[in-house]
Write a structure and sequence with these properties.
53% of the residues lie in helices and 21% in strands. It is of the alpha+beta class and 390 residues long. The protein is elongated, with a radius of gyration of 39 Å.
């Protein structure tokens, strides 16, 4: 009997130990699973945080405008590359906004925003340039948590320059239209006044009316040309063309104007020289250059049009003996609507040279001007076209 009881007791103890072991093992497995799930959750949270941080960083890097992130004490937390380029090495995390940017206006805007002010958009001046500064609170309104301010800066220099250029353009157009129209009206009044005029005097009045009408036609053509170029409607079709033929077409068109001012118009274009060109477009560009040369060269002056081979290009030059271009105007003569000192003397809309630049660049060439800015020494406009074989 005793052996059987001992055997049963050992079996019972073994069963109890087995059950305890299984429970412990199950608890261990569950703990391992819980730890694994917690580790996975932590890793996932870390990855999400890193992903969001990378996305925010990429967003700030992609923005072309300077961006600043500030804490609730107006200390710099982050500045994207454009902001670092604007403010330089002093803009480092942890510095106060005033120290980092040297701008009291910007500091006042951020302080106003943090204080609950409503005007978060202002125009300020940084390094002598106008900027639009917009401040946005970084906050969670549902949890009433505020984490500082984001400031975005937009450079207004180009926008203001274009605004001034457009205003100047409208004023110039109004002036250019008013002058020939007034002249035409006065000339017609003389013709219709019933006075007895000689045949020569009548022809002179008609000639003046024709000249003013030509001025209006030139103005309308320049506006139309620029509109076509900027809209992309002016397609360039390159074909091999003899350069002397291109030049002679333009000279033939403007020779009467030069003759009226007793100007000498010389052409130097060797035969056999060819370039890839859109005839209509290049006639337009060369015509604008020649028109300017005739307009600004005094009576009895000289104008040259030269063509030569320059490596893989053809070099065209239009030179005159006019008053030249002041050095301060040289960098801007090809800008739209720009009218320098020389233009103010002879009138004009400031579109002709801009059109010439667009045309030449569309041909893959370059255009530039050289001038000493001295009366009688004139200016030399040069442009290049790709050379071609006929």
């Amino acid at each position: 009997m005793l052996p059987w009881l001992l055997t049963a007791s050992f079996a019972l103890l073994a069963l109890v130990f087995f059950l305890l072991w299984r429970r412990a093992r199950a608890a261990g497995i569950e703990a391992e699973l819980s730890a694994s799930r917690a580790d996975q959750a932590a890793q996932s949270a870390t990855m999400n945080a890193r992903r969001e941080a990378a996305q925010r960083l990429a967003l700030s890097l992609a923005l072309p405008d300077p961006v600043l992130l500030l804490d609730n004490d107006r200390a710099l937390v982050y500045a994207n590359p454009p902001a670092q380029a604007l403010f330089g090495p002093p803009a480092a995390p942890g510095q106060s906004l005033v120290l980092a940017t040297r701008s009291v206006e910007l500091d006042e805007l951020v302080a106003h925003t943090l204080a609950g002010g409503e005007d978060h958009d202002r125009q300020i001046t940084l390094h002598g340039r106008p900027y639009r500064a917009r401040a946005v609170l970084a906050e969670d309104r549902a949890e009433n948590v505020r984490a500082g301010v984001v400031v975005v800066l937009s450079d207004l220099s180009e926008l203001q320059r274009l605004g001034r250029a457009r205003r100047d353009f409208i004023a110039n157009i109004s002036h250019e239209l008013r002058t020939p129209l007034t002249s035409i009206r006065l000339l017609l009044d003389n013709l219709l006044a019933g006075q007895t005029l000689s045949a020569a005097e009548t022809r002179r009045l008609y000639q003046k009316i024709g000249d003013e009408a030509q001025t209006l036609e030139q103005l309308a053509q320049e506006i139309l040309d620029l509109a076509q170029i900027e809209s992309g409607q002016a397609l360039v079709r390159l074909t091999p063309m003899p350069v002397d033929e291109l030049v002679n077409r333009v000279v033939e068109r403007f020779a009467p104007q030069a003759a009226q001012k007793r100007q000498t118009l010389a052409v130097e274009a060797p035969p056999g020289l060819a370039a890839l060109a859109d005839v209509e477009q290049i006639n337009r560009a060369l015509g604008n250059l020649l028109h300017n040369a005739i307009k600004f060269t005094p009576d009895g002056g000289q104008i040259w049009i030269r063509a030569n081979r320059l490596g893989e290009d053809v070099l065209l030059e239009v030179a005159d003996t006019g008053p030249g271009i002041p050095p301060e105007d040289l960098p801007r003569v090809f800008e739209r609507f720009y009218r320098g000192a020389r233009s103010r003397v002879g009138g004009g809309t400031g579109l002709g040279l801009a059109i010439a630049r667009h045309v030449v660049e569309a041909h893959g060439g370059k255009i530039w001007v050289e001038s000493e800015g001295r009366p009688g020494r004139g200016a030399i406009f040069r442009l290049t076209l790709l050379a071609a074989d006929l």
